Recover the amino acids of this structure.
């Protein structure tokens, strides 16, 4: 999205809009009555949320329960039908993490899901979205320092996406940092499809088809193995997303190759 003219006010509006549209390791999917697959994913997310709430109520001092609740809040928020519902779920996850961090400051998952739920909240609060981004950055950095391999290099993966998609004007967006962390995530957990996909998509965005092709080749080489490792209902939504994005990235790369002049 480009501003028609470069007034400070217009740049700020563009920054707010970009912040609200941030996407992280699990893309937003809105269930509809016509889409039975999305409806099934939404129902599964709600079931996991209820189970996590019950565990947290039974033992809220356990940091694992706090992190699982925050994770389920994040997932359920992906299927929220309006901003109010999304914000309520995000705030519940944020509250669970912050309360747990006071008692267990060195537990990576609560820092990680605090940042993830702040991302959900940023999508609902246009005026304060930019102020949330540095907090997310800090929490992802803490999680990365405590456990860089958590969620298949999730902290570094999401830092890379944050720097890639956040506004560069009046915010923390950075091409250099996006590259650094997306490449790091792919190196730390190369067999996790999301990491190679993010990297391929970023390379395409930066007009680096050779690097994009290399990332897609690594993805292709490990595709069958990943289907075995990440199998079952819990991964069904991810595989639907990964398959679509893989096909889209390959089509974009093919178009670039077709446009290249023959020497």
């Amino acid at each position: 999205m480009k501003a028609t003219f470069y007034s400070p006010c217009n740049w700020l509006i563009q920054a707010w809009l970009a912040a609200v549209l941030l996407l992280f390791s699990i893309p937003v999917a809105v269930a509809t009555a016509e889409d039975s697959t999305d409806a099934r994913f939404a129902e599964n997310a709600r079931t996991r949320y209820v189970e996590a709430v019950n565990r947290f109520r039974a033992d809220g001092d356990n940091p694992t329960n706090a992190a699982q609740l925050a994770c389920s809040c994040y997932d359920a928020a992906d299927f929220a039908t309006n901003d109010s519902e999304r914000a309520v779920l995000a705030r519940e996850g944020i509250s669970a993490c912050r309360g747990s961090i006071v008692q267990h400051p060195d537990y990576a998952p609560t820092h990680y899901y605090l940042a993830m739920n702040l991302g959900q909240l940023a999508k609902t609060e246009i005026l304060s979205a930019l102020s949330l981004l540095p907090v997310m950055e800090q929490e992802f950095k803490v999680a990365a320092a405590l456990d860089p391999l958590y969620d298949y290099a999730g902290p570094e993966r999401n830092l890379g996406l944050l720097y890639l998609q956040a506004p560069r004007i009046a915010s923390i967006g950075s091409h250099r940092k996006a590259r650094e962390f997306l490449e790091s995530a792919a190196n730390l957990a190369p067999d996790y499809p999301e990491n190679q996909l993010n990297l391929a998509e970023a390379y395409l965005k930066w007009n680096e088809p050779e690097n994009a092709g290399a990332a897609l080749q690594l993805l292709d080489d490990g595709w069958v193995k990943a289907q075995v490792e990440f199998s079952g209902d819990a991964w069904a939504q991810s595989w639907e997303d990964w398959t679509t994005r893989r096909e889209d990235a390959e089509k974009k790369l093919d178009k670039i190759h077709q446009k290249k002049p023959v020497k």
About this structure: The radius of gyration is 19 Å.
